[in-house]
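Per-residue structure
===
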Amino acid sequence: MLSYRHAFHAGNHADVLKHFILVCLLRHLALKDKPFWVVDTHAGAGAYGLDAGYATKNAEFEAGIARLWTRGDLPPALADYVELVRGMNPPGELSFYPGSPYLAAKLLRPQDRLRLFEMHPTDVDLLGKTFQGDKRIIVTRGDGFAGLKALLPPPPRRALVLIDPSYEDKADYNRVVDALKDGLKRFPTGTYALWYPNLARPEAHRLPERLRAMKGIDWLDAGLSVRKPAPGEPGMSGSGLFIVNPPWTLAATLRQCLPVLKSALALADNAAFSIETAAEPQR
């Protein structure tokens, strides 16, 4: 929906979980010399100011990235993500937060490509200005669900697809499942990362169950809840990232890092994390 602006939520606990894992996935793809593509179906503005504008309304980053900002005791994978955030800021200041397009662009090599889709006219204009002149990156104003079909399979047969809608439109709960199923038919060996929120609405509750019920795929589902909401309580209490064809090293990395994130970002004593795979659940 064109009313949604991610800047209100930039750097919150959901961004931390999503972007930390995104960096892990990109680092793994870059271990081989062969090129890869990154496709971001709902790219947003690419980067966000935290000291002015929308982000200051609720200051959600203060309970997210700001809690990790000065720590020097983080596990290596978390420290890598935080260092990338530090790299876009003045020394000692947390003034900006990178969206997934910025992080992906930072980790692209000359042979890799990034395809960004965004519907909001203001955000897509900001994306275009941010990446102007970078021939590795193409920004498209349009429906990322529809655009994804034309890109799969990508020429190098290696890719990470990030599916990350706002879910303000209830239809997105079905569209993400359809997009994942269609993508796997076109490109079964790709890595897919599908983000979802923990909300009181029934569609949100059913989505991870629907994803985990898919047959014949290798998946990992990572979740982080900063509090356990009371029945019917509004707001996002946590989120998850459902990954198809995850790197074999990812589960071990998450077992090391998610307890640290739970402790750092908890808003209540009942905060929790989960790591479930096609083989076994772990909490």
Q: What stands out?
A: Residues 13-29 form the longest helix (17 residues). Residues 17-46+99-282 form a domain with the Rossmann fold fold (CATH 3.40.50.150). The mean pLDDT is 92. The radius of gyration is 17 Å.
